[in-house]
C-alpha cells in the first residue's frame, strides 16, 4: 500500500543531516532523472533574474535562489519534516509516534517536483520548485510522468492518492482498480458538493495522519472505505472511475463568524 501526498511550497530551512545523496532516496531507478532536473535547476539558478521570474519570486523571496544554488551541498532532514503549510500542519509529523513514523517510512510517499516521489523519511534539502515551473531544457510533467508513474505503479498494492492534480500529473498511475484518487469536497444539506481549498489540505493532512497512526495496511478499496468509516471519515464514489470524494460537512468547512 502507498499513500501519496503532494509537497508544499513552504518548507523548513536548514537541517542536521548530511548533504544530498541521490542514491539514498527511495525509487533509486529515478536517480538519472533526478540528476537531470537538479542540473536544470542549477542552470536556472545561475541567472538570478531568470530564476526570480520562473519561480515567481517577489523581493522577499529572492533568498530562495541561493537555497536552490546550494541544494546539492546543504543539510537535509526527512521529507515528512521538510514540508510545512496547512496539510503538513495537520499531519504534524513531529508528534507522530516512533511506530507511526516507521509505518510512514514504508507506506507514505511525497511527490516532489525536484526529486520525484520520495519516501517519508528520505533525507532531502530545502529547495524551491513547483510542478508548473519552467526549467531550461526540462518540462517537468513530460520529464517525470513516465519514469515516476512507472515507479509508483510497480510498487504494487493499493495506492491512495491525495496529490493535487498538478502533482498527480508528475506521476500518473495505472489501472483505477489499484488506485484511489481522493478529492475533498464539502456537502450541504441538499447533498450538493463543492471543492475546497484550505479545508482540502487540512482534511488530507488529518486523513493521512489517521491512516499512518492506524498502522493498517489496506489491500482494497473496500478495506479503505471500511477503515475510513471507522476512523470518522466519509469516503464515497466520485464522478469518475477511480475517484472518491472525502466529504466534509459544509458547516465544518465554513469560516467562523467574525473571524479576522
From TrEMBL:
GO terms for cellular component: cytosol. It comes from the Bacteria. GO terms for biological process: response to hydroperoxide. This is Peroxide stress protein YaaA.
Amino acid at each position: 500500500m502507498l499513500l501519496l501526498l503532494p509537497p508544499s511550497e513552504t518548507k523548513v530551512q536548514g537541517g542536521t543531516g548530511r548533504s544530498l545523496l541521490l542514491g539514498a532516496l527511495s525509487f533509486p531507478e529515478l536517480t538519472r532523472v533526478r540528476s537531470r532536473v537538479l542540473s536544470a535547476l542549477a542552470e536556472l539558478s545561475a541567472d538570478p533574474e531568470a530564476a526570480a521570474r520562473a519561480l515567481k519570486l517577489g523581493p522577499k523571496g529572492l533568498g530562495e535562489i541561493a537555497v536552490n544554488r546550494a541544494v546539492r551541498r546543504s543539510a537535509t532532514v526527512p521529507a515528512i519534516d521538510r514540508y510545512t503549510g496547512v496539510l503538513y500542519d495537520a499531519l504534524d509529523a513531529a508528534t507522530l509516534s516512533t511506530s507511526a513514523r516507521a509505518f510512514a517510512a514504508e507506506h507514505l510517499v511525497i511527490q516532489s517536483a525536484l526529486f520525484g516521489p520520495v519516501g517519508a523519511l528520505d533525507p532531502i534539502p530545502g529547495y524551491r520548485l513547483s510542478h508548473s515551473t519552467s526549467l531550461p531544457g526540462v518540462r517537468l510533467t513530460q520529464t517525470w510522468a513516465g519514469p515516476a508513474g512507472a515507479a509508483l505503479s510497480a510498487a504494487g498494492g493499493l495506492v491512495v492518492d491525495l496529490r493535487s492534480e498538478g502533482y498527480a500529473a508528475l506521476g500518473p498511475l495505472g489501472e483505477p482498480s489499484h488506485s484511489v484518487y481522493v478529492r475533498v469536497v464539502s456537502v450541504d444539506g441538499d447533498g450538493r458538493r463543492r471543492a475546497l481549498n484550505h479545508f482540502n489540505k487540512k482534511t488530507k493532512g488529518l486523513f493521512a495522519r489517521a491512516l499512518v497512526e492506524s498502522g493498517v495496511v489496506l489491500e482494497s478499496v473496500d478495506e479503505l472505505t471500511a477503515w475510513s468509516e471507522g476512523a470518522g471519515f466519509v469516503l464515497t464514489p466520485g464522478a469518475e472511475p477511480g475517484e472518491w470524494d472525502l466529504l466534509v460537512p459544509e458547516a465544518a468547512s465554513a469560516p467562523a463568524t467574525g473571524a479576522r
